[in-house]
């Protein structure tokens, strides 16, 4: 297996030299592409200083040219993306199309032709991490994707460079603005999921088909990318345990609020030793209870926040606007400057680093905490029966709260950290228990 | 003037090739140096993968060898720093001594000898930014200093790289843990400055001579570095308006609390148009009122937080542990990995970028807001007299609160944004006013 921690030195490219123009092919002209094109023009003087030569857009490839005739100069517009990529005067290919299969072909074609690639496409990177890294290594060109995670919030760069001398233990955060907008709205207004989704759609925070956001696919792609970089191990979107927010009810939110928590959709990437003592990694996305005093609890609206815990650095947080045309374009432009500098002066950014190649844990092996809310019979001995089930699985309880109902009791339990599999087994057994009338909700919890 | 936005391409160094060891000279073996040495050993396998070759410590230079005999292997220990730097097998010089003049000589000697330099020394970088940048350009080697600002919180790297395609408007934050520990303690316990300083010293948050921290020199150096990078303009520590926290009284803290504010020592770097319409930059450090709802208000103990506002990216925040041996060493090691990668594979990090070279505004030109707390005579017409002074200087008031005392009134005014000079003039005139018995406090305010 190739070690992707380093560029392969023999094919080293010494650069075009100072003052040389750098040719850009822009693939896609949607919300992000249009902002990239605008800002490349608006900032052209500054960018030239920072790069050491001017950027020149050689073409903008779109599927349907008619839709873009008014906004893209005629001499740049094309529907022949492969033709554009292969032009001799194109040095860097910027992919802001979205989707997986078609952009994969384009990006691989660009890398094979010796062009550096900047992409904002989280689904693509999370599905083909190793393949894209290999292709960039083989041609000794750059592959940048800062915009694929949390838009303009610098997190890919800091993980790959600033923290390159540390050991990262976990990366956890709110990486999807749409679901955060919905959950934050449910929490602050009492609205239900459908009302907040409609509001998010009206304001442009949710797409016509919101599946990728609300079912956690978008967050899972980002979790896969973050885990891959942080743990030097290829982790794919399909490796990420994923639960969305569509089942979160106003009652869940209300109960969380009463207990001092807020519900957030978190992406959690961890490196840990499993029960066999083997070092493994895991990535998961699910609704999570967070104490109201936790900094993640105050991440409102469509903002993103990412916590990184490293051995030497301790805990770090990165916060900002994780979506939108201009913030995403800012990240794309930062990557273009990096790739263009290397084209002018030589050198290469750190390649995909997968040397650790740690095993990926099953979701059942992950350690987590459960918050279980259930209705139980109101009689002596019920709590003892329930507690016994936890004890049998080696799980200890951290808090137990009981509220008296008319003819039943409401029991809210929070466990200490335990294996997901054991917690799941306990819940199954609780469901079978005659004394348990119903499990109202089971939500994982982070502190 | 040289354009430091780019490395000079002709002398391009193609690298030593994969597998080649990279020789490290460590200058200094204090809190940070000891952690750097420890972590280089502990992480040596991972670092080798990430770099493409092993790191080899060639020597540790200290002033007094006796003090370090127990902790540094005898074959590494030396008191001849220049001799160590000039060894043929040293590729990267890591400076963690502190001070300005002596480390400046060492760093310049290293750069001139073609060694890349990693330094954690904010005072040095803030005093000799351009000179050090020129020296690294001339030898076409790297100069890294992530650890000079906010320890392990990645902010130098993100500003130089991730945000290289954006226009930064301001950088503002809490960059000194000692003063934040003191102010946070005064706010939460009601203790006075001297008590909290003693506590900070006892816990190791403050040095025996706390001047650099409490008088704002440390924060001013960091502000100078942040402004230099963000605005592509050399800004020196001596250009930074600096006020410390030694005059902050428990009464100031209590009054701030009553009005919904907390007092923080902020470093504020801005790019703005002055009254003549000229684009200028300014950096300042002073105690500042921050609303309790502002994210900076909740930065407690010795933590640091830095806000960056950029045109396209919007507002970003970086948060974490801004001091301490291990967090600072994490940043140093990240820089060592970057410099070592370039030694192995060729290429160079972006050099010091000062192409914009914007004029530095006088402090009087800066726009800020005042919170003025004063005792005034309790009679009709006083408020009108006072308001007239503000109006004469073109300053409008945002809030006016009046409390009745026994024989006088307490008047608390918050202004809208205005020129510092005009605000200072107003305060001078207020002092002359017969109706004003005394100005209790004047503190600037940020929202």
Automatic annotation (TrEMBL), chains A, B:
User: Per UniProt, which keywords does this protein have?
Assistant: Amino-acid biosynthesis, Methionine biosynthesis, NADP, Oxidoreductase, Sodium, Threonine biosynthesis
EC identifiers of the protein = 1.1.1.3
A Pfam short name: ACT
The organism's taxonomic lineage, starting at the top:
Bacteria, Bacillati, Actinomycetota, Actinomycetes, Mycobacteriales
Cofactors that this protein relies on: a metal cation
Residue ranges of domain ACT in the record: 371-444
Q: Which reaction does it catalyse?
A: L-homoserine + NADP(+) = L-aspartate 4-semialdehyde + NADPH + H(+); L-homoserine + NAD(+) = L-aspartate 4-semialdehyde + NADH + H(+)
In this chain, the stretch annotated as Disordered covers: 1-20
Per the similarity annotation, which family is this? Belongs to the homoserine dehydrogenase family.
Give the matching SUPFAM superfamilies. Answer: ACT-like, Glyceraldehyde-3-phosphate dehydrogenase-like, C-terminal domain, NAD(P)-binding Rossmann-fold domains
Q: Per its UniProt record, what InterPro entries does this chain match?
A: ACT-like_dom_sf, ACT_dom, Asp/hSer_DH_NAD-bd, HDH, HDH_cat, HDH_CS, NAD(P)-bd_dom_sf
Q: Where does L-homoserine bind?
A: 207
Report the GO molecular function annotations. Answer: homoserine dehydrogenase activity; NADP binding
What name appears for this protein in its UniProt entry? Homoserine dehydrogenase
Catalytic residues identified in the record: 222
Tell me the residue numbers annotated for binding NADP(+). Answer: 27-34
Annotated signal sequence is: none
Which Gene Ontology BP terms does the record give? Answer: methionine biosynthetic process; threonine biosynthetic process
Task performed by this protein: Catalyzes the conversion of L-aspartate-beta-semialdehyde (L-Asa) to L-homoserine (L-Hse), the third step in the biosynthesis of threonine and methionine from aspartate.
Question: Under which pathway is this protein filed?
Answer: Amino-acid biosynthesis; L-threonine biosynthesis; L-threonine from L-aspartate: step 3/5; Amino-acid biosynthesis; L-methionine biosynthesis via de novo pathway; L-homoserine from L-aspartate: step 3/3
* Keyword tRNA processing in record: no
- The question of whether Amino-acid biosynthesis is a record keyword is answered with yes
Recorded hits in PANTHER family, A to Z, give:
HOMOSERINE DEHYDROGENASE
């Amino acid at each position: 297996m190739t070690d992707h921690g380093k560029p392969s030195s023999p094919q080293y490219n010494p650069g075009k030299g100072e003052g040389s123009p750098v040719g850009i092919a822009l693939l896609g002209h949607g919300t992000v592409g249009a902002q990239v094109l605008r800002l490349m023009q608006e900032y052209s003087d500054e960018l030239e200083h920072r790069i050491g030569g001017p950027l020149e857009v050689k073409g903008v490839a779109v599927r349907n040219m008619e839709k873009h005739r008014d906004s893209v100069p005629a001499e740049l517009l094309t529907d022949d993306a492969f033709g554009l990529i292969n032009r001799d005067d194109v040095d860097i290919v910027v992919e802001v199309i979205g989707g997986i299969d078609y952009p994969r072909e384009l990006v691989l074609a660009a890398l094979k032709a010796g062009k550096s690639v900047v992409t904002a496409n989280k689904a693509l990177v999370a599905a083909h991490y190793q393949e894209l890294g290999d292709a960039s290594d083989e041609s000794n060109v750059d592959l940048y994707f800062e915009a694929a995670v949390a838009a303009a919030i610098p997190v890919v760069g800091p993980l790959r460079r600033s923290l390159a001398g540390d050991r990262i233990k976990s990366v956890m955060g709110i990486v999807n603005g749409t679901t955060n907008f919905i959950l934050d709205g449910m929490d602050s207004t009492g609205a239900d999921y459908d009302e907040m989704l409609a509001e998010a759609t009206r304001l442009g925070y949710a797409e016509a088909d919101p599946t990728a956001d609300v079912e956690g696919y978008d967050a899972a792609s980002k979790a896969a990318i973050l885990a891959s970089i942080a743990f030097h191990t290829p982790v794919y979107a399909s490796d990420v345990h994923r639960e969305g927010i569509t089942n979160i009810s106003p009652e869940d939110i209300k109960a969380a609020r009463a207990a001092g928590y807020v519900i957030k959709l978190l992406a959690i990437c961890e490196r840990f030793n499993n029960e066999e003592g083997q070092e493994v990694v895991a990535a998961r996305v699910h609704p999570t209870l967070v104490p109201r005093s936790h900094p993640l609890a105050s991440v409102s609206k469509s903002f993103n926040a990412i916590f990184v815990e490293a051995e030497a650095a301790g805990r770090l947080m990165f916060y900002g606007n994780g979506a939108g045309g201009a913030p995403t374009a800012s990240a794309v432009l930062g990557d273009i400057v990096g790739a263009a500098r290397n084209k002018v002066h030589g050198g290469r950014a750190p390649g995909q680093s997968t040397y650790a190649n740690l095993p990926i844990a099953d979701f059942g092996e992950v350690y987590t905490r459960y918050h279980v809310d259930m209705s139980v019979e109101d009689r002596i001995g019920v709590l003892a029966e329930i507690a016994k089930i936890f004890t049998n699985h080696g799980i200890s309880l951290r808090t137990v709260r009981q509220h008296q109902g008319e003819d039943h009791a409401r029991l809210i339990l929070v466990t200490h950290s335990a294996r997901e599999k054991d917690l799941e087994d306990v819940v199954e057994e609780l469901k079978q228990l005659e004394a348990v009338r119903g499990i109202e909700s089971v939500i994982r919890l982070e502190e």
